[in-house]
User: What shape does this take?
Amino acid sequence: FLHGLGDTGHGWSEALAGIKSPHVKYICPHAPVMPVSLNMNMAMPSWFDIIGLSPDSQEDEAGIKQAAENVKALIDQEVKNGIPSNRIILGGFSQGGALSLYTALTTQQKLAGVVALSCWLPLRASFPQGPISGVNKEIPVLQCHGDCDPLVPLMFGSLTVEKLKSMINPANVNFRTYSGMMHSSCIEEMMDVKQFIDKHLPPVD
Assistant: This one.
């Protein structure tokens, strides 16, 4: 589970502790510290550079692709540890959710699902029109968004969900919105996340 801009893995490891299932391992890595254009080049934990937050802002293509490779390497490490990739769910909040979506749609590792909270799909123009052909074309996605988000507007979430439905099996895309929620999380959302994880990662005998 990948945290948002300026955060660390600690915050989400606490949030996820509240919904843990005993047979599931939760990994909350820290993003590297780098200067972020959006924040006047201040250095902070960030998976890739963010130049602006409007739909037509320039994107850090090289940084996004490199970050996705780093996530794929984390998944490979777990596979080496004996966990098949189809038992791995990728998730994230905001910038981390954007990276988890991008990684799932570009990787050759078959994943169990994606949890994308308060986020968008980066480099959306780089994807072909129509369904993707990769191993994750049937991947289940839980996408969640607050309807009062001032940072990543709900419209970004809605546009992302429409794009996802054109790329993967639309029946597998579940979009949940939460009334009054800003750029954050809530109990109801965490319960939806728990339900999704328990459904797609049932205990193995």
